[in-house]
Structures are given as C-alpha cells and as structure tokens.
Amino acid sequence: MTDTGTYDGAGERWDDSFDVAVVGYGYAGAIAAIEASDAGSSVLLLEKMPDPGGISICSGGNVRTADDADEALAYLKETAAGTTPDDVLAVLAQGMTEVPAYFERLAKASGAGVARREAPGNYPFPGIDTFAYYYIDSVPEFDPAARYPHVNSYLPIHRAAGVRLFKVMEDNIEQRDIAVWLESPARRLLTGKDGSVRGVIVDTPSGTRRIRARQGVVLASGGFEANQEMQRQWWQEKPVLTAAFLGSTGDGIRMAQAVGADLWHMWLFHGTYGFRHPDPDYPYGIRMKRLPDWVPGRPPRADVKMPWIVVDQNGRRYMNEYPPYLQDTSHRNMATYDPQTQRYPRIPSWIVLDDEGRGTYPLCSPTFNDRGLSFEYTPENLRALEDRIVRQAGTIEEVAREIGADSTVLESTVSRWNALVEDGQDADHGRPPPSMLPIRTPPFHFAPVWPICSNTHGGPVHDAKQRVIDAYGEPIPRLYAAGELGGVFGHLYLAGGNMAECFIGGWISGREAGSLERWE
Ligand SMILES: Cc1cc2nc3c(=O)[nH]c(=O)nc-3n(C[C@H](O)[C@H](O)[C@H](O)COP(=O)(O)OP(=O)(O)OC[C@H]3O[C@@H](n4cnc5c(N)ncnc54)[C@H](O)[C@@H]3O)c2cc1C
C-alpha cells in the first residue's frame, strides 16, 4: 500500500520516535544535528548513501567568514540582486562573524588546527574586503586516504581541507548521543491535519519505518546536481554534467514541495566547464583545474597561466575563459541556444591549446564521494586520464576538421588570439593578460568541454529562522531547511558561501527545531 504521507492521529503506527529528524549527513545536517542535540533533543540523522559526507566531503573546506556584519550584508545584497529578503541575508552576514568562534569549538573534538586565510569577495561590491576563509589545517593522527578511500576531493586527499572538516564533524557527532542511520533515504514527510510536519517515512536496510519527530524535521539533503530530469525542467542549457556526487537527487526539494513549499533560485547552479569522463560507467563531469579567483579592477596574479582558449562548434571564441570566479559564471556563457540551427552551438565547446601549453600543468581535477571509484591524485594519473580525453593534431586546419568547424574560421580565431597575446590585452573578452599564452607550437591539443555543475542553489524558500515557507508566504510548521537545499544565492555566488550556509543555516535550524514544544 502506498503511504499517503499524512498522519491522522493517535491510531497511527510509529516505528520510532525522536525529537528532531535531520535528513542528510553533509556539513549542514551534521551541524543541525549537533545543535539540536546540544539543545537537549533526541536526534536522528538520516543518510541515504552507505557513506556520509555528501558533496561536503569533496569540497575545498573553505568556510566564508566576515569581520563586519554590515559590510557583509551590503555585499550579500549585491549577490542576491533582490532574489532574497534582506532579513535572511542579514542573519547570514551576522553568522559569518560568528563562524570563527564556532569553528574553534567544533575543532576541539578532534584536536584539530584552525586557520584563517585572507580572501576578499569575488566581485567589487561594497563590503568586499570584510571577508576571509576559515578552514581546518590539521587533524592529528588522521589518515584521510585510509579513512575515506571512496573520496576524491579536487586536491590530493592529504591536502584537502574539506575532508579534514568532515572528520571534525564526524568526531563531533560521535561524541554526542545522536542516532545515525546510513543507507536510509527519507521518502516522504508526514504531516498532521493542521499541516505541521510530524515525522518522516524512511527506507532502511531492514524495511520502511515511520519516524515520529516530536519537535521537527530539518531537511539538509543537498541539491539536485545528479537529477537530470529536474535539470532538464529548470535549466536552459542541456546537458549539464555533475561534478562530484550522485546522492544529490533533489529528494528534499520534492519532499518540501509535497507539503506545499515555495521554491527559489532553481535556475542558479555553481559550476564551470570541463570534461566528460571517457568511461561511460563513470557518470561525472570533470572540472577544469581550480585557478585562483581574481577581482575586476584589481591586479590579477602574474604567475597564473591558462594555456587554452574555448571555441564554439563553429570554431569561434566567445568568452573570457578565465572570468573573475571561474567556478561561478563561466558555464553561463554556454547556455546560448541558436534557433537557426536548433542547437546549442556551445555545448559541447572545445578547448584548444598548443604543445607548450599542454605541458604547463594537468588540466583537470576529478572529484567524487562514491564507493567503487578511486583515483590517486598524481600528475601522472591526471595525465593518463587526460590522454583518454584530449586529442592532438598537427595543424589547426586538422583540428577544425576533427571538431567539424570551418578551418578558415578556426585559423582566424587562433591567429586573432595570438595577436591579442602579443598585444598583451584581450580586447575581445577581457581575459587577465598574465594568463594568456600563445597557441603556436604543434602538435595542437583539443578536447570537448561541457557545462559542469559543482552544486545547485535552488530549493525550498526559507525565512531568517530557516523555516520552510509555503507558496503563500507562511512557514510550514516544524519544517526547516539548511545548507545547499534552498540556498540564498539567487544571482551571483560568494565563494565559501555554501559552507557558511551549512554552518549558519545548520545551527539556526538545529537550535530552532530543538527549542520547539513537543507536539505530543
Ligand atoms: C569540488 C567542490 C568544492 C567545493 N568547495 C567549497 C568550498 O570550499 N566552500 C564552500 O562554501 N562550498 C564549496 N563547495 C560547495 C559545498 O561543498 C556544498 O554546497 C555543501 O557542502 C553542501 O552541503 P550540504 O550539507 O547542504 O549537502 P551535502 O553535503 O550534499 O549533504 C547532503 C546529504 O544528504 C543526503 N541525502 C540526499 N537525499 C537524501 C534522502 N532522501 N534521505 C537521506 N539523505 C539524503 C546526501 O546523500 C548527502 O549526503 C564545493 C563543491 C564542490 C563540488
């Protein structure tokens, strides 16, 4: 029999009871669970995959902090462009000033070292210089490769701060009396006749269970990076490849929708361009190497080189391949649809580089949290992977033939590019001059590149208390959202902002749920 997801009263069967149920064990779910537990609630932390960590464990581990809440708010307002109410942004801005102290507190559980790195915001908006990053820089007696053999961050794992932060989260969860159920996807929310959320239906390895949540449910189940159907419906450009984690299938968005939630920011995803893995059994895109961000109007770093240009299927260059924040906006240029040819002429696009450029550094950075996959992050392994993707040809004419472009167009694109490099200015698309390298020395190298989604921002609307809001602007009683699920960014992203949302949304939702009267 299909469970309708309604709870009709005392006659109904409950299999288990907790005060707070948290759906999803990434950073946001972990912090919500910690805070609800510290508020005195009994907590169930549900994770659908065999291993916790979600996308969080693959991340760079950089959490955005701010020295001044007013300045941070001024900046965040610009990034939201009116898509998020000021009071929601104000809470995030204030929270960013509290993250450092919270970080220190969490780190104690593992004896971990906390570090601060100066880092302005990404765009020249008011408040840009109030920001920094916090991250975990050391965890004693922790061998990341042994503990998380199924994880590949975009750095060699021993250098990955995201993995270290997740270890700290796990240590905090283990220190508390929090029930953790793995391989236990939440399927439906259960609501009472008054519309308040009363519990959740969960598939566990030993069968389906109806969980009573006496105080509330926190949805912290991430985004929809791996849900192709949702992407087809919400995003203009197609296809988009996911960068990191197959567990993000938008389950929390669906569950919230089913109880009346409004949605926001569904169109916006964080991403870049990159390769499709050559093995069809490996369903990920591979992001390009992470290059440092730069701020328009400030001098770019002289030592950062980018050896490729990106051209469309006609052989034309159409964008700055190295925009201020490569992982934020570069993919947006690929979304153009051509009604005359009825195709997306920029999906895939092609990178083209020469032999000297190919020798500069490995081009890509594979990332995953997935049993059955492993990748030792060495330059040799990266080269071997790339050799299965990147092809070569003796002349630009030959490259054009291989990619199906007109050779005169591609040849003129490359000679124009070389002239711009010689001039030391990208008069066409404004790429930072130090990053420009000529494309002259054969053989030439080329590969298709696709829009790659690192993580999504859309999901249920929430208010400043992280309460999920329905389509008429009312909070859905006892339902909270945290982290990437319904994130606040609706226009541009602030690097490190996702994890700031995991922390701040996590602690607010956990504390709020944990402070409610039990409905029973
Ligand atoms: C390569 C990479 C680097 C990044 N670096 C940074 C960075 O340095 N700083 C930053 O701020 N952001 C970064 N991000 C983004 C950031 O990592 C994510 O936005 C953030 O970690 C999301 O955390 P979360 O807890 O909301 O979701 P997740 O970490 O994805 O956790 C959600 C969990 O919910 C589980 N789940 C899903 N559905 C269900 C269900 N039905 N029942 C039970 N469980 C379910 C999932 O399996 C998952 O484990 C990066 C992203 C990528 C891909």
Q: How many structural domains in the coordinates?
A: 2
Number of strands: 23
Mean pLDDT across every amino acid position: 94
CATH architect. name of the largest domain: 3-Layer(bba) Sandwich
Quick one: CATH class of the largest domain?
Answer: Alpha Beta
- Terminal Cα span: 26 Å
What is the rounded Rg?
24 Å
Fourth CATH level, the homologous superfamily of the largest domain: FAD/NAD(P)-binding domain
Low-confidence stretches: none
Helix-residue proportion: 25-40%
Question: What would you note in describing this structure?
Answer:
This protein has 520 residues and is an alpha+beta fold. The chain has helices at residues 27-38, 69-80, 86-107, 144-147, 161-175, 228-234, 251-258, 326-329, 355-358, 379-387, 396-403, 407-423, 497-515; strands at 16-23, 43-46, 63-66, 113-118, 131-138, 151-152, 178-181, 186-191, 197-204, 207-219, 241-242, 263-264, 269-276, 285-288, 309-311, 349-353, 364-365, 368-369, 391-393, 444-456, 459-460, 467-469, 475-481. It folds into two domains: 16-268 and 457-515, FAD/NAD(P)-binding domain; 271-453, Flavocytochrome C3, Chain A, domain 1. It is built from 13 helices and 23 strands. Strands 1, 2, 7, 8, 9, 10, 22 and 23 form an eight-stranded mixed β-sheet that branches. Strands 11, 13, 14, 15, 16, 17, 19 and 20 form an eight-stranded mixed β-sheet that branches. Bound molecules: flavin-adenine dinucleotide. The site of flavin-adenine dinucleotide has 42 residues, from helix 1, strand 20 and helix 13.
